[in-house]
Amino acid sequence: DTGVSQNPRHKITKRGQNVTFRCDPISEHNRLYWYRQTLGQGPEFLTYFQNEAQLEKSRLLSDRFSAERPKGSFSTLEIQRTEQGDSAMYLCASSLGPRGSPLHFGNGTRLTVT
Amino acid sequence: QKEVEQNSGPLSVPEGAIASLNCTYSDRGSQSFFWYRQYSGKSPELIMSIYSNGDKEDGRFTAQLNKASQYVSLLIRDSQPSDSATYLCAVNINSNYQLIWGAGTKLIIKP
User: Fold this and answer.
1) pLDDT on residue A5
2) For B43, what's the count of Cα atoms within 13 Å in the CB-facing half-sphere?
3) What is the predicted pLDDT for the residue at A59?
4) Residue A84: helix, strand or coil by DSSP?
5) What is the torsional sign of CA A90, A72, A48, B64?
6) What is the pLDDT of residues A54-113, one digit of tens each?
7) CB < 8 Å to A48, chain B
8) A25 near B CB under 8 A
9) Which residues of chain B does A100 touch, with a Cβ-Cβ cutoff of 8 Å?
10) d(Cα B26, Cα A76) in Å, to the nearest integer?
11) In degrees to the nearest 10, what's the CA dihedral of B9, B15, B17, B18?
């Protein structure tokens, strides 16, 4: 399977704990995106990488969130000191080509903070 | 504030009929338009992309774009129960790589 891969699929954690998610994009895709989605809403942009450079980060993203893409391949999203409001589906997507190219999503990581 | 608006539904359509989904957007600079299908608990899946005014057909799906009126629509012909899902409209403006998303329309195909 050469699609976008995300791990883990599900994560349950207690409030205050740190969590880290991993995304492996489609191998030839140079752009990688993280989105968050809650029930009944469309995906909410978190951050975007072109190769290893983090080019955009949502102003809605608190300092507890950090993302890396160290070698321009896989990416990690870390949430420190989780809060119940962080419970959501975290989606990773990748794309290739000019601005406006479609995104290809992974299966997501569902986070539940208790 | 750049916005994408969709009727949340649910939109209920009999099996075999045409389902029509609509989306309006606020930014006249929008250049790329996408329809994604999302089943409950799953991630969005690309259905159609459209970049210029007019119709674009792919199998049972037709996307329609009218930039003057700032709307994009998706028609699903011969609707099947497996088409029951939430359909998300996403728009890319020319200034960055972000997509602006609507909240989605829930479609129910009744057998």
Assistant:
1) 96
2) 22
3) 82
4) helix
5) negative
6) 988 888 778 999 999 988 899 999 999 999 999 999 999 999 877 778 899 999 999 999
7) 97-98
8) no
9) 31-32, 51, 92, 94
10) 33
11) 50
